[in-house]
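If your schedule permits, I should be very grateful for your opinion on a structural question. I would ask you to consider whether the tokens describe a fold that such a sequence might reasonably adopt. Thank you for your consideration; the sequence and its tokens are set out here.
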Amino acid sequence: MAAINAQEMVDIYLQAEADLLQGGKDVQLGGRRVTMAELPQIRAGRLEWERRASAVARGGRSGHSLASFGE
């Protein structure tokens, strides 16, 4: 099985979230059945993978810059 990258994981979480919100009582996520009650965990997982995908897009940089004052 090929490794899944961060953006693919974001897409998987988005699809699971959309499926639940469109009336599905449960969906498969990574070989595991999840229910509407687990929507907060799905959203938290999506946010984590979005952060990872963003870090990859920035080349691993934090996105914060450092300022030097007075020198």
